[in-house]
Amino acid sequence: MKKTAIKSVSDLGPQFTRNEHRMVGQDGAFSIPLNNGQLFVFFGDTIIGSRRENESIWYPDGIPVGPKDMTGRAGVELMVNNCGLLIEPENATDLMRKFKYILDESGQIKNLLPLAPDEHRDDTRIWCLHGVEIDKNLYLYFVKVEMIAEGPFPVNFKIVGSGLTKGNIKDWDFDRLPGKGYDLFWNVDTPRFGSAVLKVPNDPFIYLYGICQHLVSQVQEGFIARVKPEEIEDLSAHSYFAGDDIWSTDLNDAVPIFNDFPNELSVSYNEYLGCYIAVHSHIMTGKVVMRKSPTPWGPWSDAELLFEAVHSRPKPLPYPDLLYAGKEHPWLSKDGGKTIYITYIEFEEYYPHLMEVTFS
């Protein structure tokens, strides 16, 4: 497909920094449109409390925070593994500046997908993926990770698998659905889905995008599953793209759609470009790229650079630069998709950082 020309890129800065709940950092930021017109935004680790001035939030007193929960440490009052907020449709022109967090009975930011009784907060985390509302049910995908002590970053982990939860937008309580095991539909040894969910008008299926990482080469490949909305809770009803417009119910038949596939991304139809676009971070380089396709499953183009995030430092970080979680928020786009809005996370800043990209 012909390469897309970029007219302008504007940096709109970190989002959600001004809030009533002393939220001082969070990542993820998957946006899910609801049937009532609201936009639900789903986050991962969220830090409540305060930040120490002129000190890395990840290196209090010069020591990496490590795998343990940060609650009660270095100004952090509470660490919530996942949470969400709502943006009303009439506030769309204000992008992400007017919002309302989902709260628990005590008025605190609510942990939407809590740990199970046999999961300890120092060992396990349940992080956000994408989701979809079907009828009156909200389905949220998640990735389950095990925290580990060793690694290149101040916080390190290994992925266990991904799963699906079911809840509603009245009480915001969710239950994990049983998959192959207790709570996972897909494990670390197979492609795992939920990184992006795509609903296509007049299509009987919804499409799920996911990742598989080769343990030796560490190459990350992307895969696609599809399922009818009314069968989303049935793992056996899923089929997987096997190439040449073939879909198989056997996950072993799945073929990758492209490499360097991230844990987080967005997939949407862009009317202005006349194609589907996948927006994601390119590894951890700070580059955010776009791929295009005539169909939800491909063939996907090579990555096109949209922008490269650059952050100045008063002094070098004690860990490699970590920029990730690039994704588009199609609900906010303007002029039929000529102007789109993208967030990414820079680990030290640790807020969803919003960018405006306008195509020529």
Descriptive keywords:
mainly beta; 360 residues; five-stranded antiparallel sheet; 0% helix
Task: Explain what the structure shows.
With 360 residues, this protein is an all-beta fold. The chain has a single domain, classed as Glycosyl hydrolase domain, family 43 (Tachylectin-2, Chain A, 5 Propeller), CATH 2.115.10. Helix content is 0%, strand content 44%. The protein has no helices and 23 strands. Strands 2, 3, 4, 5 and 6 form a five-stranded antiparallel sheet that branches. Strands 7, 8, 9, 10 and 11 form a five-stranded antiparallel sheet that branches. Strand 18 and strand 19 form a beta hairpin. The protein starts with 5 loop residues before the first strand and ends with a strand. The mean pLDDT is 93.
